[in-house]
Amino acid sequence: MSRDDGDDGNTGYGRRTFKRSKAHFADRITADGRDGWPVEAGRYRLVVSRACPWASRSLVSRRLLGLEDALSLAVADPIQDDRSWRFTLDEDGRDPVLGIRYLAEAYDRRESDYPGGVSVPAIVDVPSGRLVTNDYQQLTLDLATEWTALHRDGAPDLYPDKLRDEIDEVMAGVYEDVNNGVYKAGFATGQKEYEAACAGVFRRLELLAGRLERQRYLVGDTITEADIRLFTTLVRFDAVYHGHFKCNRWKLTENEVLWAYVRDLYQTPGFGDTVDFDHIKRHYYQVHTGINPTRVVPLGPDLSGWLTPHHREELAGRPFGDGTPPGPVRAEERIPVAHTL
To answer: How confident is the model at residue 5 (pLDDT cuts 50, 70, 90)?
Structure first.
């Protein structure tokens, strides 16, 4: 999620045609270091917002793969200003490792006058303070396939070679119509534009529900990257996309299959323990002032249902395949109870 192009800051959301910027910094951190950035424990810092679905993918992947010791974490304030993501949650308003107030400073150290906005997730090289990548599409795939030497014992294979073609196909539809589709609907500037995007969202959700009615996970019998990418949109659906983005043909809680599927994932270690509903709601309703000029954050929806039985285990499937669940969330990364259910 980034500050979009334009000079009107937060008020611009919903007042100009939405277009998602491609990741400008597409270097990859790989086992062989072919882009100049070798996988190395402790060298890099992952910068996220818990509000952002794109960044939340990396939070889930990092937890499932057990990369907490190898890849440190910086969490930005969910409320951006016109310089975008800032570290006002930290003491003195600076990230304690990078020493910067704004993520933009790491971008500037890499390249001045770069096109596009300042986005998360981002990985920063700690020794130089320079941005390495903001390629949200590739970043988690590399965590799954290039960082294997640093994975925990029992880490799941989130992008198995034999299923990659099917995973890629499923993820492409999810991205176009769901992950990005809710934004195209929410930031639409005209009725026809909105209706086309909103129809696309629900058409794809209905197709996914049909698929998930007969199998526990999207591809194969274990959790994969495809489930992570769908989860981070679905977990935000009723809280923000249904109302704030006008994706309101029905609520997720009204779709028996999808509601059970997302609860199953939420209750799986590595998923729900990365979700901060307070950050999610405050970011969308207080930052997108072009859509919500009052910045009033709604009290609902009721979140108590997230921990109710889902019965998805009746479809068989093994969440972690031959692996094991991740361990407890480390103390410094726990989400305050008031921000969760």
So the answer is: very low
DSSP 273: G
Distance CA 90, CA 65 (A): 26
Which is the catalytic residue, given 13, 44, 52, 159? 52
Rounded to a whole number, what is the largest CA-CA distance in the chain? 54
pLDDT band at 114 (very low <50, low <70, confident <90, very high): confident
Output phi, psi for 73, to 5 deg.
-125, 135
- Residue 41 pLDDT > 90: yes
How many Cα neighbours within 13 Å face the side chain of 172?
6
Burial class (CB in 10 A: 0-12, 13-18, 19+), 59: buried
The yes-or-no answer on residue 52 being catalytic is yes
Residue 51 to residue 228: CA distance in whole angstroms: 15
Active site residue 198: no
pTM of structure: 0.95
341: nearest Cα among 277, 279, 282: 277
DSSP secondary-structure letter at 4?
P
By the 8 A CB rule, do 170 and 218 touch?
yes
**Catalytic: which of 13, 44, 136, 183?**
183
Amino acid letter for position 236: R
Return d(Cα 37, Cα 67) in angstroms, integer. Answer: 17
Listed in sequence order, the residues at least 6 apart from 96 whose beta carbon sits closer than 8 Å to its beta carbon are 90
Cα separation, 109 vs 102, whole angstroms: 12
DSSP H helical ranges for the chain:
53-65, 104-110, 136-145, 164-174, 181-186, 191-212, 225-236, 256-266, 277-287
| Residue 138 C-alpha from the chain's centroid | 13
Q: How far, CA to CA in Å, does 237 sit from each of 53, 307, 338?
A: 11, 16, 20
Q: How far apart are CA 232 and CA 248, in angstroms?
A: 18
pLDDT at 57 over 90: yes
Distances (CA, A) of 270 to 63, 168, 179, 228, 236: 5, 22, 20, 10, 16
